[in-house]
Write a structure and sequence with these properties.
The chain is of the alpha+beta class. It is built from 11 helices and 45 strands.
């Protein structure tokens, strides 16, 4: 949303008004808040105070290291729910706040961050800076806070009838020279958002446009701070795109509130953001194994499913979770929770047989929050008031996706109870996880929720939170607090509490793989620990080389699933069952086995990621190396936890260029080292890629030929010391998420504190044992 046409003119049809003066400052008696009265012109005489608008800017210190800024035009305007569920684990005590005043300014301190408001010369000037004075973070300067009407009223009298106008509130924070902006949800365009106009409005638009399934009103700056915009409403951002030196945030309404979160490191920013919106939920160890799907529109029954799983077993590719996509239900009946009796006459028995055969350990099914009118269940749900209504009392329906479909109204407690009852019926049949698909296309015009106090426009994005929360908590109630697993597509702020999320409908191209990688990086910078992608791409038929490159990428995401649209993703269907070492089946088997060996590291890192509100994988390089300016621009590689650097390959030839930050890095496959910082080129076959281990790492691996995902992560392991220094540590967790012990390198350079390790474990220095590996990387 642009309010100006370049620097000098107002945009056509707009009338913006700006806070031009700080007329008065009221200090809260508790010493943790300031309230600024800001007229839209400089007040130089009494008469200047008449017939003009003012803006109220409330600056508060909610907890140490964080400051909130709320701008309001008319205080009497309602602020209808829904609102984000903040401080789900409790609000921390504010212990380090103070207001100080000089002849020219007032400063509010909140731990490591302060806001200084200039009080002299009638200037509008608010600076956010590190309390120790080491760095200015951002600021609100001349013509940076205001409101706007569209269309422009002819005079103030016309604003007595606001039904004729849209009213917007906006702020513009400064962008410093060289500053970059990241996050704002799962965005598939350029990783650095400077120069982009972004709308935070959930949409089912695939992975190759400006639309996003997961719009998160949080962004991370390379200058050591983040901004959380506290509304699920539609938000328009001009990130250096209306004014090149500012980030403009605007919403339609009378108030806008955001929090500025100081790190100073990006990890600390995310830790504090997780206090506001919640830490990610923990996931069970089995969820990190390979998931295999039926794909979307393919034909399948019990015989087909068994043939897939038997084929995977015969090729030494263990499948942890089997997923039934949409057509486990009858066509035109989604989602009534009733198995297609023709294709699956005995769903409970089939699932029992699957698990008893050992071919798979867990089962997942697809759902969406819609109900097609062809299902007999539609009439029941409509008669009970379980579906969203129009303002005239009709059920909201359209023919988009499912014929005559209605939308479950999760603001109705009885609808929630009914929906959970349907889920429990699936759990009774042996279903262990739920893919919560859709939930983006939620209407806002001519609709009324059961809770009529709610804003339909805010509900558009917030619906994602309610939908995923209800399903996640139903899984928790059945299986245990840390055993609930979603595979969710839509999200908003706080939905990280209900993992995991996946990247949506990508094409089977290298460009789409890169788009997905950028999306995962951006979502991770919004506090999402767990993320997956449709290996091979969802749309289309991946050629074997893309499938194999995507397998390598996908098995080094936190979670890994084979899924397609109108074609299967079992490897032998991709390359006519090429049985060579570089065929799809052998390549998938090798990468699946590698992930199994890495599980002691992966699962321990998962616990650490959850505790600190960090992404496990994909983790942007800037989280680990924020002082390296190059790291803020790297969008073709990522960290898997603290210590593993991964650079997926997008070329059939295997050529790849990647960046290593400062330090010594060890090639996981060859134990050869490279010293950063610098760019490097390599060429790989399909069974390797640039996978480098950071120096000073204690990497615990499962034993040779370990193909299970869930096992004793302290028994028979290989403990690899990668150029470690005395004092290096790592905490090892068991497969149930329990802390087993801390491994530490002693003063003599040898491993100490190892009594909790069991079986025939061993230590290797400056690499891992490579005697039994056949993978080769050709380094350039």
């Amino acid at each position: 949303m642009k309010f100006r046409d370049g620097m000098w003119q107002v945009a056509a049809g707009m009338r913006p008004e700006y806070a031009e003066d700080v007329y008065s400052i009221t200090q809260h008696p508790a010493g943790n808040a300031l309230s600024l009265l800001c007229p839209t012109k400089k007040i130089l005489a009494r008469a200047d105070s008449l017939n003009l608008p003012t803006l109220t800017i409330d600056i508060r210190a909610p907890f140490d290291g964080v400051i909130s800024v709320e701008t309001t035009h008319w205080l009497g305007a309602l602020n209808p729910a829904p609102h984000f569920d903040l401080y789900p684990a409790g609000k921390p005590e504010t212990s380090d706040t103070e207001i100080t005043q000089t002849d020219s300014a007032v400063t509010l301190k909140s731990g490591s961050i302060s806001a200084t408001v200039k009080t002299s010369d009638h200037d509008f000037d608010i600076r956010f800076h590190a309390t120790d004075g080491s760095k200015e973070l951002t600021s609100l300067l001349n013509r940076s806070v205001g409101f706007a009407y569209s269309p422009a009223p002819g005079n103030q009298m016309e604003t007595g009838d606001l039904s004729k106008f849209q009213h917007y509130i906006f702020t513009q924070t400064t962008l410093s020279v060289g500053e970059s902006v990241h996050g704002l949800g799962e965005r598939f365009g350029a990783f650095n958002k400077v120069g982009q106009a972004i709308t935070l409005w959930n949409a089912d638009g695939g992975t190759s446009s400006e639309q996003a399934y997961k719009n998160i009103p949080f962004w991370m700056s390379s200058r050591g701070y983040g901004i959380f915009i506290d509304t699920p409403d539609k938000i328009e951002l001009e990130v250096g795109s209306e004014r090149c030196c500012r980030v403009q945030t605007s919403i339609e309404g009378q108030r806008l509130k955001w929090y500025i979160i100081h790190g100073p490191t990006p990890k600390e920013v995310l830790q504090k953001y997780s206090i506001l919106t919640g830490k990610p939920g923990k996931l069970p160890s089995w969820s990190h194994g390979l998931w295999l799907s039926t794909s979307f529109t393919t034909n399948y029954d019990e015989k087909t499913v068994n043939s897939f799983l038997e084929g995977m077993k015969a090729r030494d590719i263990p499948v942890e979770v089997f997923h039934f996509d949409c057509f486990w239900m009858r066509a035109f009946h989604w989602c009534d929770f009733v198995f297609d009796s023709e294709m699956f006459p005995d769903p409970k028995g089939q699932i029992e047989r699957l698990k008893a055969s050992g071919l798979v350990k867990k089962v997942c099914v697809w759902i969406n929050p819609y109900l097609a009118q062809s299902s007999p269940v539609f009439k029941l749900a409509a008669s009970k008031g379980y579906l969203l209504k129009r303002t005239n009392g009709d059920i909201f329906q359209w023919d988009l996706w499912q014929t005559g479909m209605g939308i479950i109204d999760f603001t109705n407690p009885e609808a929630c109870e009914w929906f959970v009852g349907c889920l429990q019926g699936l759990f009774d049949k042996g279903v262990d996880a739920i893919k919560t698909d859709f939930g983006e296309r939620i209407p806002t015009i001519d609709v009324q929720w059961f809770d009529s106090s709610l804003s339909p426009r805010k509900m558009h994005n917030y619906y994602a939170f309610l939908y995923n929360k209800i399903v996640y908590e139903a899984l928790q109630d059945r299986f245990g607090e840390n055993e609930a697993v979603l595979f969710a597509r839509t999200a908003t702020a706080g939905t990280q509490r209900f993992p995991l999320q996946w990247g949506g409908d990508c094409e089977s191209t290298p460009e789409a793989m890169a788009e997905s990688l950028r999306g995962g990086l951006s979502l991770g910078l919004c506090g999402y620990s767990f993320w997956s992608v449709d290996i091979g791409g969802f749309e289309g038929y991946p050629p074997p080389w893309i499938y194999k490159r995507w397998v390598a990428f996908g098995l080094l995401c936190s979670h890994s699933r084979l899924h397609g649209s109108n074609s299967f993703r079992v490897p032998w269907t991709v390359d006519n069952d090429d049985k060579s070492d570089q065929g799809c089946s052998k390549i998938l088997a090798k990468w699946t086995a590698l992930k199994a060996r890495l599980m002691p590291y992966i699962f321990s890192q998962a616990q650490k990621a959850v505790e600190n509100g960090l992404p496990l994988s994909l983790r942007a390089m800037c989280l680990e190396f924020p002082e390296d300016p190059t790291s803020w621009y790297l969008d073709r590689q990522f960290m898997f936890g603290d210590s593993l650097l991964v650079a997926p390959i997008f070329e059939e030839s295997g050529e790849v260029e990647f960046y290593l930050p400062k330090g010594r890095w060890t090639n996981f496959f060859t134990n050869k080292t490279k010293d950063g910082p610098g760019w490097f080129k390599e060429k790989h076959k399909f069974d390797t890629l640039p996978l480098y281990v950071r120096e000073n790492t204690i990497l615990v691996l499962g034993k040779w030929h370990e193909t299970r995902i869930v096992y004793d992560y302290s028994k028979g392991v290989e403990v690899c010391l990668y150029h470690t220094n005395p004092g290096a540590t790592t905490t090892l967790f068991g497969s149930e998420g329990e802390a087993i012990g801390v491994l530490k390198v002693g003063a003599d350079g040898h491993l100490a504190d190892q009594e909790f390790l069991d079986g025939a474990w061993h230590v290797t220095k400056n690499g891992r044992s490579t005697i039994k590996t056949t993978a080769q990387a050709i380094e350039g």
